[in-house]
Specification:
By secondary structure, the protein is an alpha/beta fold. The protein is about 50% helix and about 15% strand.
């Protein structure tokens, strides 16, 4: 079971996510429909660190995927699946469908773009 946080405000989303983390649940998803969802992801990534797999939900395109990864998401919900980015990359070519290959390419590009040192 993956708790999905859909909330009408940033503060409500943060309260719900913090309660989920404090309850010992190791994964949660913040939907992109939450106001200032990227800010929520960033704050939770800083607060919860590696204690929680932090998913971003309702990720509809490559630009959103890059923004979520840059904000601190370690998983993306695409359709009905929560995809752990590290596990997806480790799965290798043989385990992926054509659509997943496209998604993996987007994820790999986004990770390179958000982790490339500047200067």
């Amino acid at each position: 079971m993956i708790p999905v946080v859909r909330a009408p405000s940033t503060e409500t989303a943060l309260r719900a996510a913090r309660a989920i983390g404090a309850g010992g649940v190791g994964v949660l998803e913040i939907t992109m429909t939450v106001p200032k969802a990227l800010d929520v992801l960033g704050r939770l990534a800083s607060e919860l660190g590696s204690d929680v797999v932090l998913g971003a939900g309702t990720v509809l395109d490559a630009e959103s995927a890059r923004a979520c990864i840059a904000a601190g998401a370690t998983a993306l919900a695409v359709g009905s699946a929560l995809v752990d980015l590290d596990l997806l990359e480790q799965a290798g070519e043989a385990a992926l469908t054509d659509r997943a290959h496209e998604f993996l390419a987007v994820v790999q590009r986004a990770r390179r773009e958000t982790t490339t040192p500047v200067g």
